[in-house]
Specification:
Blueprint lengths: L5 E5 L4 H12 L3 E6 L2 H14 L4 E6 L7 H12 L4 E4 L14 H29 L3 E5 L12 H21 L5 E5 L7 H7 L4 H7 L7 H14 L3 E2 L3 H12 L1 H15 L5
Parallel strand pairs: 1-2, 1-4, 2-3, 4-5, 5-6, 6-7
Helix pairs in contact: 1-8, 3-4, 4-5, 7-10, 9-10
The protein binds NADP nicotinamide-adenine-dinucleotide phosphate.
Length: about 270
């Protein structure tokens, strides 16, 4: 094992954050999972101990949108003896018609998905600077590259996170800290299981225009992307093709999504 890294994953108790812990543990890195629910964190550690016996995994109960995040990250850094890689994966999703979402839905989504990543990043920066190989990976979404029916709050938060990541990359490069951002399409996770209980038919139809991935394919895409080093990581070959269309032929992309929505349209009333 050469030069293990100290890795902090926010949102590490579930879904992509949890799945990403495995490859790092397998290569001997020290991983700490941060999330709000201590029971979910304990279950995540049990799962990882079975998958990677002897792997070094820690937990930190914390809310990225809460007042203690800086103190909690300092505690993690003390326990690991430093920090080399921060992965901002904590996130929530509120889906619904703009007329039905509340202002609180917007505020909470921005507070966790955007400000949560900003806060965790700012708290981690002094430690990443000391590392000498500091690295930040922000988990955004394809919803940071295109508007999606029902995702007005979620897209806003992910567009903001992508913008933050762009500036962060530019500012951190001279300081030797690498910044990458991941834009996955929809993938199987507890977040999507919950969404499926209540999503609007238009969101369902719109989401289906980009094929859903399993979480392992997303993990493989992220790990490959970290190795390649490019700023924007888009897991899945078909996703890369679709997002090429979204970015370079936005008019065609809107026409395709409008057509899928028209066929499914029910509306807020
Ligand atoms: N699933 C998808 O289709 C999809 C697609 C593109 C991008 N993404 C993004 O990928 C990331 C992971 O999503 P996922 O599907 O894996 O979701 P998930 O299974 O619901 O996991 C979300 C994680 O974030 C934690 N979390 C939520 N709010 C938090 C807070 N305020 N403070 C600290 N931790 C918090 C959750 O634990 P607690 O609730 O216990 O805090 C959990 O560990 C998110 O940023 C999501 O937006 C997901």
């Amino acid at each position: 094992m050469t030069n293990p890294r100290r890795v902090l994953i926010t949102g590490g108790s579930s879904g992509l954050g949890l799945a990403l812990a495995t490859p790092f543990l397998r290569q001997g890195d020290y991983v700490t999972l941060l999330a709000r629910d201590p029971l979910k964190l304990a279950a995540a550690v049990d799962q990882l101990n079975k998958q990677v016996p002897g792997g070094r995994v820690g937990i930190q109960v914390s809310d990225v949108s809460g007042p203690n995040i800086e103190m909690d990250i300092n505690r993690v850094v003390e326990a690991m003896g430093g920090l080399d890689l921060l992965i901002n994966s904590a996130g929530i999703l509120r889906e619904g018609y703009i007329e039905k979402l509340t202002e609180q839905d917007y505020r909470q989504t921005l507070d966790i998905n955007f400000f949560g990543a900003v806060r965790a990043t700012r708290a981690a920066l002094p430690h990443l600077k000391k590392s000498g190989r500091g690295h930040i990976v922000n988990i955004a979404s394809v919803a940071a590259l295109t508007g999606v029916f029902g995702y007005s709050a979620y897209c806003s938060s992910k567009y903001a996170l992508l913008g933050f990541s762009e500036s962060l990359r530019a500012e951190m490069k001279p300081q030797g800290i690498k910044v990458q951002v991941v834009c996955p399409p929809e993938f199987d996770s507890p977040m999507v299981d919950a969404l499926d209980q209540s999503r609007t038919p238009e969101n369902q139809a719109h989401a289906q225009t980009i094929p859903k991935l399993d979480v392992d394919t997303v993990v493989d895409g992220v790990i490959a992307g970290l190795g390649l080093g490019s700023f924007l990581i888009i897991p899945g070959r078909q996703t890369r093709l679709m997002t090429f269309g979204i970015r370079h032929f936005p008019g065609i992309s809107r026409w395709v999504s409008d057509r899928s929505i028209r066929n499914a349209y029910r509306g807020p009333n």
